[in-house]
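A student in our group prepared the protein record below, which I am reviewing. What it holds is a sequence and that sequence's fold in token form. My question to you is simply how this chain folds and whether the tokens agree. Do not assume that whoever made the record got everything right. I have pasted the whole thing underneath without changing anything:
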Amino acid sequence: MRTSHTLLLRLWHDPSFTFSLVEVTYCNRGAPGDETTVAGTDISGLLAEYFTILRSGQEVCIPYHRLRRICYQGRTLWSREEGLI
């Protein structure tokens, strides 16, 4: 099974994908439904243990274990419940 991190790396590096079309939903306690979705344009880095996003000029680290879903052009490619789809 492909991990969420591996899938994000492929979407980031593979020239056949446009990373700005990626949407990542992660667990964010206190947010509506305890989830937040960010666009690929907001993701600033993919490190070994977490990815980083820019929020109000600050870089925020989100661990991969908090990911719930990865979509590309509105189509779910990976979800925590089902893995790679």
